[in-house]
Amino acid sequence: MVKLRILIIVLISLAVALILGMFQIQNDHDIYVDLIYTSELVEISVARFAMAVFFAGLLLGIALCVVICVTLGVELNSARRQSKKLAKKLDQAREQSIKGPT
Hints:
Layout: H1 2-26, E1 30-33, E2 42-45, H2 46-99
Antiparallel strand pairs: 1-2
Helix pairs in contact: 1-2
């Protein structure tokens, strides 16, 4: 099962590399890009610019997913602690109702 997963990952990686390689070959002409933080135009190929924007978005998306997962983990731990406290209070209330008024 593990070897199958590794094979699938390798095949997907090769397919993506092939597609990106073909994209790079088809779009090799240069364009000028006006970046916000520089005063001069930067000359870069269309494919490199598109891949740079794509991978920047991918990294930003992964970072946001990690932040969301960490936040949800913290909220889950807080909810579990609160649930344990409420369960203890409920057990105490049940014990008091069983004993009756004294």
